[in-house]
Amino acid sequence: MESCSRNRCGMGLLFMLALLVTIVLALPASCIAQTTYGSIIGVVADTTGSVVPNASVVLTNLDTAATLNTVSTQTGLYRFVNVPPARYRIDLDVAGFKHFTRSPIALEVQSTIQVDLTIQIGSQTQTVTVTAETPLLQPATSSLGQVVDQRETDELPLNGRNPMSLAALVPSVIPQGGTSQTPTGENPFAWGNYQIGGGMAGQSLTYLDGSPVNSSYDNLTALIPTQDSLQEFKVQTNTLPPEYGGLAGGVINFTTRSGSNTLHGNAWEYLRNKVLNANTFELSRWRGGRCGVGRPPAL
Fold it and tell me: Which of 85, 185, 284, 292 is a good FRET partner for 235, with 20 to 30 A between their CA atoms?
């Protein structure tokens, strides 16, 4: 009897374990945590092209002075993963080589950039500083898309201060009815009514600092961040990474601004005057009517 009881307990534990594994594997892709962070990878080599192992690499945030440290592998590879979007500096020290510095390195939202480092033989008291190179490549991802940076978010005119409207700056993004205006009082179906990458309108995903803002009801975009809170955002249009699934369109990733070591603030004035608006179809039709009879429609 005791042996039988032990067998039943063992089978029960195995059943519960199998059930747990099945539930985890059955979770939809949208339940997997997403991130707006990026990564910086590269290879440390000398001027002859030979890789340099055990090199000390330091990544410094230029705004907060926060640092990350790593060591290159035996193949010369180094990497910094899950790094917040910001401007960075890389410092490299290896015995028998000059100190290497490269700055600034702009890491955009949800991007993986490759920064290869070439060091020269010499004393560590000497410094090699690199301030300009060829554009950074992103060979670690097949995703197509574009980042709308902070300057575009701040300075481009927005009707109703709706940052979703700026998604139309990205190729293959087509606004549909009800978009490109203030979301206040607008039908919520219109907030995410964009065709992205040839997909269906209203079938894209929107994230704010890695958290999904789409509701379970018809995939509605339940939240639109304020224009002043954003640092930048990325619209991915085609060949999305494997962590995204269950959608027929693209992915919009908003990232909010972070603080720095410098005291700063914003002051702005919101001016909306209908006299400065573009002419409407109805007003143009009235002006071009017969003999100018009648009164113009109300603006």
Answer: 185
CATH superfamily ID and name for 144-260: TonB-dependent receptor, plug domain (2.170.130.10)
Domain 38-130, what architecture?
Sandwich (2.60)
* 104 preceded by a cis bond (ω within 30 of 0): yes
What was the pLDDT predicted at 254?
92
Per-residue 3-state assignment (H helix, E strand, C coil) for 28-96: CHHHCCCCCCEEEEEEEEECCCCECCCCEEEEEECCCCCEEEEECCCCCEEEEEEECCEEEEEEEECCC
Instruction: State both tokens at 167.
Output: 């998604």
pTM of the model: 0.67
Angle at 198 between CA 144 and CA 188, to 5 degrees: 100
Residue 102's nearest CA partner among 85, 89, 88, 115 is 89
- pLDDT surpasses 50 at 29: no
| Cα–Cα dist 111/84, whole Å | 10
State mean pLDDT over 76-95.
91
- CA-based nearest residue to 44, from 81, 71, 69, 82: 71
The mean pLDDT of the chain is: 78
| Residue reference for tokens 């700056």 | 169
Q: Give me 137's structure tokens.
A: 């490549």
Domain extents for the chain? 38-130, 144-260
Q: How many residues does the chain have?
A: 299
| Alpha carbon distance 33, 243 (integer Å) | 8
State the pLDDT confidence band at 257, using cuts at 50, 70 and 90.
Answer: confident
Quick check: 15 pLDDT over 70? no
